[in-house]
Amino acid sequence: MITNSPLQTDLYQLTMAAAYWQAATAEQESVFHLFFRRLPFKGGYAIAAGLEPALEWLESFRFGTAELDYLAGLKTKAATPLFKEEFLGYLGDLRLKLDIDAVPEGELVFAHEPVLRVQGPILHAQLAETALLNILNFQTLVATKAARVCHAAARSPVVEFGYRRAQGPDGGYSASRAAWIGGCTGTSNVLAGQRFGIPVLGTHAHSWVMSFDDELEAFERYAEAMPDNSTLLVDTYDTLKGVDHAITVARKLREKGHELNGIRLDSGDLAWLSQQARAKLDAAGFPDVKVVASNDLDEHIIESLRHQGARIDTWGVGTNLVTAADQPALGGVYKLAALRKADGSWQPRIKLSEQTAKSSIPGRLQVRRFESEGMLVGDAIYDVDRSISGEVEIVDPSDPIRRKKIAAGTVYKDVLQPAMKAGARVFAPEPLAAARERCQAALAKLHPGILRLANPHSYPAGLEQGLYQERERLLASFR
Amino acid sequence: MITNSPLQTDLYQLTMAAAYWQAATAEQESVFHLFFRRLPFKGGYAIAAGLEPALEWLESFRFGTAELDYLAGLKTKAATPLFKEEFLGYLGDLRLKLDIDAVPEGELVFAHEPVLRVQGPILHAQLAETALLNILNFQTLVATKAARVCHAAARSPVVEFGYRRAQGPDGGYSASRAAWIGGCTGTSNVLAGQRFGIPVLGTHAHSWVMSFDDELEAFERYAEAMPDNSTLLVDTYDTLKGVDHAITVARKLREKGHELNGIRLDSGDLAWLSQQARAKLDAAGFPDVKVVASNDLDEHIIESLRHQGARIDTWGVGTNLVTAADQPALGGVYKLAALRKADGSWQPRIKLSEQTAKSSIPGRLQVRRFESEGMLVGDAIYDVDRSISGEVEIVDPSDPIRRKKIAAGTVYKDVLQPAMKAGARVFAPEPLAAARERCQAALAKLHPGILRLANPHSYPAGLEQGLYQERERLLASFR
What we know:
Chains A, B: Residues 7-137 form the Nicotinate phosphoribosyltransferase N-terminal domain. The structure is a homodimer of 479-residue chains. By secondary structure, chain A is of the alpha/beta class. Chain A has helices at residues 11-22, 51-60, 65-72, 85-93, 122-152, 168-181, 190-196, 206-210, 215-225, 239-255, 270-283, 299-307, 319-322, 432-443, 448-451, 465-477; strands at 29-35, 46-47, 99-102, 108-109, 116-121, 158-160, 186-187, 231-233, 262-265, 290-293, 314-317, 333-340, 346-348, 365-372, 375-383, 392-395, 403-406, 411-414, 417-421, 424-425, 461-464. Chain A is built from 16 helices and 21 strands. In chain A, the strands form four sheets. Chain A has a seven-stranded antiparallel β-sheet with strand order 13-12-1-5-3-19-20, covered by helices on one side. The interface between A and B is large, with 114 and 114 residues.
């Protein structure tokens, strides 16, 4: 595992930096947006996450001797040095002087909206690209997945259990963080508990049971060691016999003034087994012993189990959550959108694509989010250098026929908030719980049809009309 | 990003550890195997990877004050301390004393075969479980994916470009490492280049072109800065015009004694565009300028493009490789397989499952790999405490009708190699290139039908007959 390094980047960012430096355009003031073109999981929304670790990376950015020595040793195919010594000297002195405006962690974000607006010297913005994408793409993906899983579980707690199959040590660590922002109740990942204050939870493994000659003995020994914290895994051999053994232990614990926390099911027909287990526990006088279920769960299986009448109190979700298994990458991009001219004004820039919808959005962008009667009614992406007021018309860039008018005077907020000015933080790191609460509050303002897992309503998020026209004009100028 | 910590684990490993300690079974000598039940990607093989970082984690294992203080603060639902002070004292003194036998990195591994055999006090083995799974699952997955992608590309180089969409900082870093073991030629990830000595490669981005008023000017400036290292991205506006601009620059470079390295295509119909680009480059006298292609490639798209006659020299593969997008988790497990009895003999242990094939394999396992005329002919998983000699019969645990006999005297090697004894390394870290070469050598010994991407032949890997019978006997004893 690794600590922050400016070498967390693609080589081409460094060769481009060398070329900007040589072309004397390194200080050219630029604006980039980090955004994605499609909502993940065919869902109706996404939850922004990863800003704080991204800011930490930006703050830590510094080429030390080891990094510069490594770069000095790189050669071209012609065996010439890849980087000039003077350029490496320049890198050694470089501190990133970027302005960052960002969607706060836990906040809703939709397709085409900037998750981040990065403004500053083009060389600086370019050197930050890869790390920003890496951090924000993944955490936004997992926070969104977690929100979906928690939505499927309705009010029941969801515990993230994914570390063992996460994509590397930090894949697990970042995922635990993002999953908590998205609504999970806790994690099994102890490091994430220590570093982020996320509640840590757990039961025991099959190996505990297998290490004794007999399941009942294994349960008794575990309960002796953890009298106030026992959730017994009942499916090592025969699940319903396991429930009986757990009830025997629950009685013994109660005699000593303790209560069994729960049992865990990790295989078989979770709907039927949970009903049987619940009935046994209730009949034995343990209505408060929780039934925890795990085993390759995701939002769709949880929804199905609930529809089947499963009696599951807590859901342990691992692999499918932390790897976002049905879509393991967000596909966020980082596109140049404006350059400052000598006269101080901004010149919009656009990347063409054969599909108009895939072309980038020019300008210096902000997102205005409108609200009516406590519910969100639409987002307008607009250019901060153009005035926007009165009635606002929102145009879907993927389908310009789809438009929505927002009446003048509708309540709104601008979603992107200043996070860094010239490389210095604008605010102190917030507690992670603040991001989690922001997420809950935001989701509560979305129409249930947008929250739906399959074929959700499409939230009206698009370009403010004037920006839409400006983009069309630029696109036409290339044809 | 984070550095190695003993808290990279699931909470239940620590509560089980507390329970083993309290039950006075912490020192019970045990054997666990780390294995997976199905080959990833519906493929015919897997490539083991991740051993070296796993050994580094094991070596670094130590609870410091910060970790112990955190654990001391954890409470049960009844507000009692989760861990006893004496137990935390024990943890503070704990050093892992495990014997590790492992499949070397880059070596082939098949379903049910141990990637790792872990032997030692059960408490130690349990505290290592989560981190070992996390590291080996992911790197084995990506090394296997890389081998598939490189197979699809035949002899053309594949460069791993995935950092920006990898699962977190370390997800990218680990993936670059594993992808190189699996056969990639290089990576765009500069940190992986620095730390592992992997060749770093790159071109430039669309933003470089967009930062100038004109594509030709952008190419010229880049070539001036990188005369011996220019691969020009030609699709920012109009791809074939971009190729013409690149040719103009190639001529200017040649006048100055340099050669253009290549052009890159990142969108559109890569088969057709690569043919057009090749024709233009050849006609202009640049047959050695390479055509690099990228854009959501994977092994299937590469195979299809080659079948379509695409003229692509180098493949840049990102997201689908580093996230192993079609199967983003390997599903490796870590199962108790034997306990040492007071008399020193080993008692096999088994985890049942409703499906026999999902039940674990008891014993202390090794894999014997047989070879005939330079090709691999079969793997027999056997128990090191049972003799195996003469003719060996291999039984597929998923389908016991499928058996293969290996004649007495067939050449073989035992695949698991000692890596740690009582917590100390048996060998010094090997250069990563050694793992990559091992992978190439191993793949060369597989029948082409097993290497095939879709519906490959199934390599005969299964249980040695005596072990198969012993497992059946144990399973029957539970019925």
